[in-house]
């Protein structure tokens, strides 16, 4: 039992810092051993996350998204110790969510190394659930500063994308290996359905709040890896490659349009308030009146 004299915030910050150190160390190890056949860059093309595992499997470089995620978590581990953040109500839930995400990241690395498809499927599902929980909470309680957005929300947004693609890639791998063909529609048809489902889901995410550009850019990278592998790799499929490229374009346009729409509405309301004859109104009141009482976030 934790003594009453030990603040729960101190426990949280310490746990996040320790987990971050382990995640960063494991990520560095994966990079350092890429030429020995044990790093993520040396994934067997026939493995669960290999590029030849299914028609929607991305190129191995897609999983290097863990590099900016780990870097973001490292920045957050330092950021949470700042005096003004130690008592921040938002860190009470962001910190625990980052800790849970880091634990799942370690599970992902273990599962990826073991090549266990069922484990990857389970980890991907939990990652996606954690990412969607972050999305809900961040829309309700957004970051107050850009620094907080970059260190906390951007890595979690990319973490959501890796979860979605871990889930779809491992599921597609299992179905491909079992020669499943529901309805007799063929592998290409089901691959397109999977891409459409992922694109619709990510577009819904990117149309909330101010666009969640971190999610959009990570998804564009992942879809581009799928497109490149299907157009130039094996198994080759021009249809799937073109569909993935189109999906990447739609995600980028959706997120950019949402960000432009929200920013345009905010600026228009600010001009309306200033033209109403009260140009000395404080900026905080202008932001509140415009329906955007928070600073820009990533």
Automatic annotation (TrEMBL):
Biased composition (Basic and acidic residues): 261-273
Region described as Disordered: 261-298
Transmembrane segments: 15-32, 63-81, 93-111, 117-135, 156-175, 187-206, 213-232, 238-257
Record key words, sorted: Membrane, Transmembrane, Transmembrane helix
Name of the protein: Tryptophan-rich sensory protein
Organism whose genome encodes this protein: Arthrobacter citreus
